[in-house]
Design brief:
Shape of chain A: flat
Largest sheet of chain A: none
Order of helices and strands of chain B: HHHHHHHHH
Largest sheet of chain B: none
Oligomer: heterotrimer
Number of domains of chain B: 1
Order of helices and strands of chain A: HHHHHH
Helix content of chain A: over 70%
Shape of chain B: globular
Number of helices of chain B: 9
Strand content of chain B: under 5%
Strand content of chain A: under 5%
Radius of gyration of chain B: 18 Å
Number of strands of chain B: 0
């Protein structure tokens, strides 16, 4: 019996994805190596500061993913494009993954500096938690609503309203903090060139990771949608 | 203008129904008393005193809000009246605005019971115009967001799960700023105007956003 | 003008096709009775025609407008009585109708007029939750007529109606563009010029 190759991307794009994945694996190794061996240890915060090379790029990847969720949702509400909905769906998962990394690394970073793993008065920690909860809610809505149009619309609304609310959450916690005596945090100094290089490599590696994950997940979703359409017919 | 007519009609209908059937208010009133009871045994009131009041207040308001906003759309669903309502040409945003307004008023009615009850509880009068302003302003914004997600959740099969999961994180700005406002109103030092102005800004933002989004949630 | 024009109309619940593909057309002023046993898709079809649900496939035009895109405009012109009336039990019959007058943007004076037309003038002040089945049905009929619809879609309007009620029904639908679902073949013949029997089609779909 002949087996059929099911294709979801054009051959050129599939190759591009594969190359990107391999390149990214190398970059991640490089970034890890640089972070551990090459980058200098911070004088004020010590060894734990190196978590910065994972934390900040993850944050940027998470926010980028959620921007994709926002745009995908808006486009879907506008013209019901299944591709937009699919992209939003996938980006939310990737975003949630990086938000988890952000939360964990942020918490670990906080411990040596503030003495505890969690504080409620730090706007970044709280807004990250809220971000996590909103997008977990987004995925929950997708699962619970009627699949297809209803799930797409409801999720889009959650994604859009959530995206608007997160900066507001950040702002309100920061506002609250100005009322109460501020806790001393290390003032950011200019980064020495070694740190900058490590940061740059980590940034590219992590963002590329996000894109690669997005690409592979998207392919799976295309297959799933096709399967669903075939069932419906 | 037909938007106002529809919104007013919907709000009037909801309030009239509540006044006659008396389903939500007594249940919420009971909830409030129970919440205070739990707070009394859970917190050390003598030592904590008025310092724990904002927390108790917002905890109670938040959970009462979940119930009140949830019922707004759940009851329509249960009575099978949501569909005839949506099959009219009336604007979804207007319908939503009417429902959110009615739900907000119901929650404010609960707060009218809650505040004096807290006065009894803490043995000092807590009511002040500032407190009322903070509560009302926060309630409006919370109603906008809460009713939006209630409308969403009511149309799915797990509405009791979805509403708190979606609403609570998004209510944090109101709880943080409102909590601060209540603290000041109860005698903690500081200026109230900043907090009230912020709450008003939040209200405007979220009521507009929610009304726009309602179009997509209330249209099958 | 064609009030209804459907080509290849289909409806699905999950993976099961429950209606169609169906071709249908109805001219303004004409009347159609939809017959069929339980489960043959009568309610499904009527809900599609009333814009209460979206078709899974095919094309549906009402008054020349796309039924999925122009829903707000169409809802101004369609009156629908579904299988479940959904009145507000705590509101009086009159208040229920006045509420819908507000929603449709028509003058409230229509409410008492319509109550009279359906023979409910005496119970206008009774709460809808306390109305009998037949009365609730009549109230639903009144609500469907509130916006002076150009197309009337009625799902088993005769259910629960007594002799007098049926007489009222005949009078009220006379001359209107009408789609009506019923089990009662006599009533169908009396009220409508055409019939569509869905049973055989349902059997075909299952084979």
């Amino acid at each position: 019996m002949a087996t059929t190759q099911v294709s979801t991307l054009t051959p050129a794009r599939a190759d591009l994805l594969r190359i990107a994945a391999i390149l990214d694996a190398l970059l991640l190794l490089a970034a890890a190596g640089l972070a551990v061996f090459y980058a200098p240890v911070d004088s004020v915060q010590g060894l734990v500061q190196k978590i910065f090379y994972l934390h900040v790029p993850s944050a940027i990847a998470a926010y980028a993913a959620f921007a994709v969720v926002l745009v995908g949702g808006l486009v879907f509400l506008w013209n019901e494009s299944p591709a937009a909905d699919r992209l939003a769906r996938v980006a939310a998962e990737v975003g949630l993954l990086f938000t988890t990394v952000m939360l964990v690394t942020g918490s670990l970073w906080a411990r040596p500096i503030w003495g505890t793993y969690w504080v409620w008065w730090d706007p970044r920690l709280v807004s990250t938690l809220v971000l996590w909860l909103i997008y977990a809610g987004y995925l929950l809505v997708r699962r619970i609503a009627s699949p297809g149009r209803q799930a797409g619309r409801f999720a889009a609304v959650v994604g859009i309203v959530g995206f608007i609310d997160v900066p507001i959450v950040h702002f309100s916690v920061a506002w609250w903090r100005t009322i109460h005596p501020p806790i001393e945090t290390a003032a950011p100094e200019a980064l020495p060139p070694e740190m900058l290089l490590t940061f740059a490599v980590s940034m590219v590696a992590i963002l590329l990771l996000a894109a690669v994950l997005l690409g592979y997940r998207y392919r799976v979703e295309v297959l799933r949608d096709r399967f669903q359409a075939a069932l419906d017919r | 203008m037909s938007f106002l007519r529809v919104a007013a009609a919907v709000a009037r209908k909801d309030l009239r129904t509540e006044l006659r059937s008396r389903e939500t208010l007594p249940a919420l009133g009971q909830f409030v008393v129970l919440a205070l009871l739990v707070a009394f045994f859970g917190f050390d009131v003598e030592t904590g005193g008025l310092k724990i009041a904002p927390g108790v207040l917002w905890l109670t308001v938040t959970f009462a809000g979940l119930v009140a906003f949830g019922r707004t759309f759940a009851s329509e669903r249960d009575q099978n009246s949501l569909e005839p309502l949506l099959l009219t040409p009336a604007s979804r945003s207007a319908i939503f605005a009417g429902k959110a307004l009615a739900a907000a008023l119901i929650l404010v009615a609960v707060e009218v019971v809650l505040v004096p009850a807290m006065g009894l509880f803490f043995n000092t009068p807590v009511f002040s115009l500032e407190l009322a302003a903070a509560l009302v302003l926060a309630t409006i914004g919370m109603a906008g967001l809460g009713c939006l997600f209630a409308a969403l959740a009511a149309q799915t099969r797990a509405r009791d799960l979805l509403l708190p999961v979606l609403a609570l994180p998004l209510w944090i700005p109101f709880i943080v700023v409102g909590g601060r406002a209540v603290q000041v109103a109860l005698g903690g030092g500081g200026s109230l105007n900043g907090a009230l102005a912020l709450l008003l800004d939040f209200d405007i933002l979220f009521v507009v956003v929610a009304s726009l989004a309602a179009k997509f949630v209330l249209d099958d | 003008m064609k009030a209804i024009e459907a080509v290849g109309l289909r409806q699905r619940f999950g993976t099961r096709t429950v209606l169609g593909p169906l071709d249908l057309s109805l001219v303004s002023g004409d009347s159609l009775a939809v017959l069929g046993e339980n489960g043959s898709g009568k309610t499904t079809l009527l809900r599609l025609l009333a814009t209460a649900s979206r078709p899974a496939g095919g094309e549906l035009r009402l008054f020349g407008l796309d039924a999925t895109r122009e829903r707000t405009e169409l809802r101004r012109r369609i009156g629908y009585l579904g299988d479940v009336a959904g009145h507000y039990p705590a509101l009086t019959a009159l208040e229920n109708l006045e509420f819908f007058c507000d929603l449709h943007g028509v003058e409230r004076a229509r409410a008492p007029r319509l109550l009279e037309q359906v023979g409910l003038a005496a119970v206008g002040r009774r709460r809808a939750g306390q109305l009998s089945r037949g009365m609730a049905q009549r109230l639903g009929l009144a609500r469907a007529l509130l916006n002076a619809p150009e197309l009337l879609v009625l799902d088993e309007p005769d259910a629960g109606l007594d002799e007098e009620g049926r007489g009222l029904l005949s009078r009220l639908v006379e001359g209107r563009t009408l789609v009506l679902a019923t089990h009662d073949r006599e009533l169908a013949a009396q009220l409508c010029r055409h019939t569509l029997d869905l049973s055989r089609r349902a059997l075909e779909a299952y084979r």
